Amino acid sequence: MTQLNRRTLAAGLACAPLAALLPHGAWAQKPIVLGFSQVGAESEWRTANTESIKSAAKEAGIELKFSDAQQKQENQIKAIRSFIAQRVDVIAFSPVVESGWEPVLREAKAAKIPVVLTDRAVNTKDPSLYVTFMGSDFVEEGRKAGRWLVEKMKDGKGDVNIVELQGTVGSAPAIDRKKGFEEIIKADPKFKIIRSQTGDFTRAKGKEVMEAFLKAEGKKINVLYAHNDDMAIGAIQAIEEAGMKPGKDITIISIDAVKGAFEAMMAGKLNVTVECSPLLGPQLMAAVKDIKAGKPVPKRIVTEEGIFPMETAAQEFPKRKY
Ligand code: AHR
């Protein structure tokens, strides 16, 4: 090869688009990597939420690193630290409880990795620790449950004794759903919460705690307010085993609107469910792409939701996606 030819080839190589020099497909853009720390698999809702996130990531071409915390905050903190160490592009998580996140969120911020909160909020005075929070308004869900009860019992005389199955202690939905419900029922002193305990958002715990409520209060109980459908479904079993009729002897209100709740309503065992949508995957992936592209995203993205009394269950059931 002449000196000139060698020079021409070198110049050509320098100018040629790199893609032309690489094997087919190797020049394709690197996918965005999202680290997602999920609460666990405690409920039908959570399973639908996980499925929504996994399928939306696939659809969006986002590489998902998924970690299940089995309802333990320490596992979520470990997962977030590992995402930071792996230098993912974005971290998203659904915090099991509200408090105790500032140190790890500061680590993510120092590593310049944007954080998205999905479903549940964190308690922090520094909103710069996360980019956006997308999910339901849990206080409003509690209010919807309360308003339905007040309307249903408006003509009744005498006390309305309520037992409450709370969600996971310290979690945003447990705190807020209690708050919203109490805000509404306090307007009339006939509504009395006579027992309130956590059922940790699971069917097994919901059943166990309802058994204890029934043992302690028996036929005094008029209403069960469960912070999610799974606990209500567990409690329905306990009520039946105690020889009572759920949905009749005890009015049952719950939250989520999962298919299991519609089945219970169609069987006449659950009176109403307030919707809380787990289908956050597509919204999350859109936000992740916007963040990576440097586009602004709103600080709070609230999910639109309804309420389904048992009379609407048969008609709505075929339309349910989760
Ligand atoms: O954070 C949402 C709540 O968590 C859902 O109501 C419940 O079912 C889930 O476990």
From TrEMBL:
Gene Ontology terms for molecular function: carbohydrate binding
Protein name per UniProt: Monosaccharide ABC transporter substrate-binding protein, CUT2 family
One Pfam family cited in the UniProt record for this chain: Peripla_BP_4
Any one Gene Ontology cellular component term annotated for this protein: cell envelope
UniProt entry tagged with the keyword Signal: yes
Subcellular location: Cell envelope
Source species: Paracidovorax wautersii
Signal peptide extent: 1-28
Keyword terms, alphabetized: Signal
Keyword field contains Mitochondrion: no
InterPro entries per UniProt: Peripla_BP_I, SBP_2_dom, TAT_signal
UniProt-listed PANTHER family: D-ALLOSE-BINDING PERIPLASMIC PROTEIN-RELATED, GALACTOFURANOSE-BINDING PROTEIN YTFQ
First-listed, main subcellular location of the protein, grouped into a coarse class: other
Domain Periplasmic binding protein positions: 35-294
Similarity-based family: Belongs to the bacterial solute-binding protein 2 family.
